[in-house]
From TrEMBL:
<protein>
    <recommendedName>
        <fullName>Small ribosomal subunit protein mS23</fullName>
    </recommendedName>
</protein>
<dbReference type="InterPro" id="IPR059242">
    <property type="entry name" value="mS23_dom"/>
</dbReference>
<keyword id="KW-0689">Ribosomal protein</keyword>
<comment type="similarity">
    <text>Belongs to the mitochondrion-specific ribosomal protein mS23 family.</text>
</comment>
<keyword id="KW-0687">Ribonucleoprotein</keyword>
<keyword id="KW-0496">Mitochondrion</keyword>
């Protein structure tokens, strides 16, 4: 049947007409309501691009430290700064502002917002010091510090979890044996 083209319905019709197979019970029902056919792709995956993508690239070029923000959260309540920048540039362009001016305005807004967040946290720390309390954790940490905070427990486990220590010691022993075997093959004592 591999030489026959078409879907299940077409193939079955050909077999029934050629008397190679008796007519199945479901054939008439399937002819009355055939299954949906989907267009075939040419095998190439098309790149998805959003209108703000060129501006996001420009933003990352200007602010490389923000590359570590989670860009996957496109529809989150607080999208990443790069996406906000791109959307703001598009918004300004729709209002009739030139591209260069829109980029400059969006960039200055981003910088002002970043400064305001730093000032707010500095004020929080100052209030905590005056009250004699521990300062609160930074509500606006850098993306790198957020990633490090997530990984901290795994790094801690590496040194203090006995099961992981056993695995690590076993890996060290295997590597030492491998190096020794490699050295003996090369004629080293």
């Amino acid at each position: 049947m591999s030489y026959m083209r078409g879907d299940l319905l077409t193939r079955t019709r050909k077999l029934v007409k050629g008397l190679a197979k008796s007519e199945p019970i479901w054939l008439k029902a399937m002819e009355q309501a055939p299954p949906a056919t989907f267009p075939r792709t040419d095998g190439k995956i098309k790149r998805i691009s959003l209108p703000e993508d060129p501006y996001i690239k420009k933003f990352f070029h200007k602010h490389p430290e923000s590359k570590y923000h989670d860009a996957i959260k496109i529809s989150a309540f607080d999208p990443p700064p790069a996406r906000m920048f791109g959307l703001r540039v598009l918004e300004l362009k729709e209002q009739g502002v030139s591209e260069e001016e829109a980029i400059a305005v969006a960039d200055s807004e981003y910088r002002l917002e970043k400064k305001a967040k730093k000032k707010a946290y500095a004020r929080l720390k100052e209030i905590a010091r005056v009250q004699g309390k521990r300062p609160p954790p930074n509500p606006y940490p850098s993306a790198i510090k957020e990633i490090q905070a997530e990984e901290k427990k795994y790094v801690h486990d590496r040194f203090f979890n006995p099961k992981i220590r056993q695995i690590l010691n076993r890996m060290k022993e295997e590597k030492a044996v491998e190096l020794q075997a490699r050295g003996s093959r090369l004629g080293r004592p």
